[in-house]
Design a protein that fits this description.
The complex is a heterodimer of chains A (about 160) and B (about 190).
Chain A: H1 3-13, H2 18-30, H3 32-51, H4 61-74, H5 78-82, H6 85-109, H7 128-131, H8 134-164
Chain B: H1 8-16, H2 20-42, H3 45-61, H4 72-90, H5 101-108, H6 124-134, H7 137-148, H8 153-160, H9 164-193
Helix pairs in contact in B: 1-2, 2-3, 2-4, 2-7, 3-4, 4-8, 6-9, 7-9, 8-9
Chain lengths: ~160, ~190
C-alpha cells in the first residue's frame, strides 16, 4: 500500500488521528507533490460521490415483495404459524409451579420420624376443607378468568397479524 | 402521520404490530440501494431482482431478531451480502477475487453498456459507472456501501463480517483499481475517437 496515498485517503475520509491529520496538513502545505496528489485524490473522491448512480428496480418491485410475503404467510402450515412460544412457556410454567407447590407440601407434611415402612402411617396432609374456603375459590376463579382473557386476547391478536400477513 | 416521515425504527415497530403498509414503506425506502447491491454481485437485472426480493422477505421474517441498537440499513445490507453470496454459489458463478485480473478482463470484454459509436455523448459519470461495473463484486460493494450507503467503516465491517481495519485496506485497494479502470477506459475512448 502506498504510504502517501494511504495517509491522504485517511485524511480525506476523516479516519486519521488528530496528530496524523496535523502531520498531513503540514505535508500538503509544505510539499508540492503531496499537494498535487491530495488534489487529485480529492477530485476523484468527489467524482465517485457525485457520479455513482444507483440502479432502479422495476416499477412493481414493492408490490412483488409484499405479494411474496402475503403468499408465504398464506401457504405456511397451520401448525407452524399458530405455535406461540410464549404461550407454551406460560402454560408449562403454570404446570411446573403447580407441581413444585404440591411437592413442597408433601415434603413438608411427610412424617420423617417413622421408623418402619410396615403399616400405614398417617401423613399430616393440609386440611383442604379449610384451604378451599370461599375466598380461595373466588381468588382461584378470578385468576382463571384473567388468564383466560389474557390468552384469548393473545390468540386474537396473533390471528389478526397472521390474517394481515 | 405520513409513513414516509417516520424513521426506520418507527416503521419496524408498526410492522411488528401488524401494519404491513409500514413494511411496504421500508421496502420503498431501501429498494434502490438493495437492488444496486444485488446488481454488483449478479451483474444481471433478473437475478438482482430475485436476490433483492429474497432479502426483503428474509428481513420481514427475521424482524424479531433485529436489535434496534444498530442501524436497520446495516442489518439489511448484511442480509443482502449473505443472500447474494449464496445466490452466486448456487449458480456456480465466481465472485472475482481481489487480484483475479483474468476475471476482470473477462467482465471488461462483455459488450454490455459499451457502445463506441456514441462515445462523444457520454459523460465522465458514464465511464465511472462503467468502471464500477467492471470491478469485482467485493470492490464494487465496498465502494457502493461507503459512498452511497451512508455507511461508516465500522458499519461496513459489520455488514461484511470483517474487521474495520480490513475494510479500510479493501476500500483503499478498491479505489485504486477503480481509478486504474476509469483511466484505462477513458484512454481507450480517446483512442477510438482519434
Amino acid at each position: 500500500m502506498s504510504d502517501i496515498e494511504e495517509k491522504l485517503w485517511e485524511y480525506i475520509d476523516g479516519t486519521c488521528t488528530p496528530a496524523g491529520r496535523e502531520a498531513v496538513e503540514k505535508l500538503i502545505a509544505g510539499n508540492e507533490s503531496y499537494r498535487r496528489k491530495y488534489e487529485e485524490l480529492l477530485a476523484f473522491n468527489r467524482e465517485i460521490s457525485t457520479g455513482m448512480e444507483l440502479d432502479e428496480p422495476p416499477m412493481a418491485f414493492t408490490y412483488n415483495v409484499m405479494d411474496a410475503i402475503r403468499t408465504e404467510y398464506a401457504t405456511q402450515k397451520p401448525l407452524k404459524t399458530q405455535i406461540n412460544k410464549s404461550l407454551v412457556g406460560l402454560i408449562s410454567g403454570f404446570f411446573m409451579l403447580t407441581l413444585i407447590i404440591t411437592l413442597i407440601m408433601v415434603l413438608v407434611n411427610f412424617n420423617w420420624s417413622a421408623s418402619s415402612i410396615a403399616g400405614p402411617h398417617p401423613t399430616n396432609l393440609p386440611d383442604f376443607k379449610k384451604l378451599l374456603g370461599a375466598g380461595v375459590i373466588k381468588a382461584f376463579l378470578f385468576f382463571d378468568t384473567v388468564l383466560l382473557l389474557f390468552l384469548l386476547d393473545r390468540s386474537l391478536h396473533f390471528r389478526k397479524f397472521q390474517g394481515q400477513a | 402521520m405520513m409513513q414516509s416521515k417516520l424513521s426506520d425504527i418507527e416503521l419496524i415497530n408498526k410492522t411488528m404490530a401488524g401494519d404491513q403498509s409500514a413494511y411496504a414503506e421500508l421496502v420503498k425506502r431501501h429498494q434502490r440501494f438493495v437492488f444496486t447491491l444485488a446488481m454488483r454481485f449478479t451483474k444481471s437485472r433478473e437475478d438482482a431482482e430475485e436476490v433483492a426480493q429474497d432479502c426483503f422477505t428474509k428481513a420481514y421474517r427475521s424482524l424479531n431478531s433485529f436489535k434496534k441498537e444498530s442501524k436497520f440499513s446495516t442489518w439489511l445490507y448484511s442480509i443482502v451480502y449473505t443472500t447474494a453470496m449464496t445466490a452466486l454459489r448456487k449458480k456456480r458463478l465466481h465472485t472475482a477475487s481481489i487480484d483475479d485480473e483474468a476475471t476482470h478482463i473477462q467482465i471488461e470484454n462483455t459488450p454490455s453498456g459499451y457502445d463506441v459509436n456514441n462515445a462523444e455523448n457520454r459523460s465522465r459519470s458514464f465511464y465511472l459507472n462503467q468502471a464500477i461495473e467492471q470491478l469485482s463484486a467485493d470492490d464494487a460493494t465496498i465502494i457502493t456501501l461507503f459512498y452511497k450507503g451512508e455507511q461508516s467503516l465500522e458499519d461496513i465491517a459489520q455488514t461484511l463480517g470483517v474487521e474495520a481495519n480490513s475494510v479500510k485496506v479493501k476500500l483503499f485497494r478498491a479505489r485504486q483499481r477503480l481509478k486504474e479502470k476509469l483511466e484505462r477506459n477513458l484512454k481507450h475512448e480517446v483512442k477510438e475517437l482519434i
